[in-house]
Amino acid sequence: MDKKIMKSLLLVLILVFSGCSAKLSDKKESFEVKGINYTIQLPSTWEPTTDFKVKYSNEAVFGAQDKKSNSILVVMGERKELETINEDFVKRMRTELKNQYNYEKESEIYMKEFEIGKYKGVKYTLDTMFEKRATWLHLYYIETEHGLLQLNYYSANDGNHKKRAEIIDESALSVKEVNDTGDKASTDTDEIVFKNENVSIELVGVMTLEGDDGQKLLALRYTVTNSGEKSAITAKVWDEAVQVTQHDTALTEGKLPKENTILDIPKLTEQKQEAIPIGKSNESVSLYELSDTSEVTLIPSKERFPDASDVPLTVVNEEGDK
Q1: Residue range 81-110: average pLDDT?
Q2: Residue 220 parent element (H or E)
Q3: d(Cα 119, Cα 136) in Å, to the nearest integer?
Q4: What is the DSSP string of 247-272?
Q5: Is the pLDDT at 17 greater than 60, yes or no?
């Protein structure tokens, strides 16, 4: 009798574990980058999201989330003529990641090169924070016939992260370029850009965060391009040329707690001091203390941007979306 019970229990356990084994969804999700169309298979417990531009960057093109854990995917990309994966790229990225994520040695960052058909790819794994949670970032750069993709899988640092890493690998390797329409222009019609003959500032991300003592903060992420011909500039030009108001009152600068590394904001803040050579771009972020969650307004300097108009922005209540 005991042997029959044991066999029954073993059978149940086998069924349970086989039913919980991770696999890819049969459905192929689609996204587009600069006129290049792609498909990807997500892990079966993941589903596409629509708020990836708000939570990550306006440059993001696709997002997904695991229904069973606090794990997400954010995809970004470019056309391949701007960058290719070679020995220099692999080493340079590892160095940049070491500095960005405060590792002492490059060797502490897991790295693996691979191939998908005749095209190259590289994976880095980093210990970081995302949305106030300890997270493993599985970062993939994958080259296709016409494009270069960046897949950011933020995997919850829980008891299932090792198994999840395996199915994330399968998902990343499932990405395929379908076709290239040759249309390099962005399809977005709601870009927020302030520019003149010397500089172009594009808003690429808006989100709310929690600062010291529970103070609600607004984070505005932007890209500054030096389009002049004379000298280098810095991303501080945003703070100098764009005022942010709420209820007709200028917002004061906000400060993020030192232990909070959401979306690499500390690194982006530091980049505000870096010189941007002629013809180059740099990304940064500015933080503001909010009085409430009502609309804010971007007011560009009329002296620097005489043709620019004020821009109203909706404050996204991130905590309410969770």
Answers
A1: 90
A2: strand 216-226
A3: 26
A4: TTEEPPBP---TT--GGGHHHHHHGG
A5: no
Instruction: Say if residues 224 and 237 touch (Cβ distance below 8 Å).
Output: yes
Residues with Cβ within 8 Å of 108's Cβ and at least 6 positions away in sequence, in order, are 98
Question: What residue type is 169 in one-letter code?
Answer: D
Which helix (H) or strand (E) covers residue 32, if one does?
strand 24-33
H helical segments located in the chain: 2-20, 52-55, 87-100, 161-173, 237-241, 265-270, 318-321
For range 30-43, the mean pLDDT = 95
- Indicate the Cα dihedral angle 74, 80, 83, 88, nearest 10°: 100
- What does pTM read for this prediction? 0.66
For residues 189-218, one letter each, b for 16 or more C-beta atoms within 10 angstroms of the residue's C-beta and e for the rest, the string is eeebebbbebbebbbbbbbbbbbeeeebbb
Note the maximum CA span of the chain.
89
Long-range interactions of 259-266: CB distance < 8 A, separation 24+: 260/129, 260/132, 260/209, 260/210, 261/128, 261/129, 262/129, 262/130, 262/131, 262/132, 262/209, 263/56, 263/130, 263/207, 263/219, 263/221, 264/100, 264/101, 264/128, 265/209, 265/219
Two structure tokens written together for 292: 């409430």
Strongest mean pLDDT among 17-26, 110-119, 206-215: 110-119
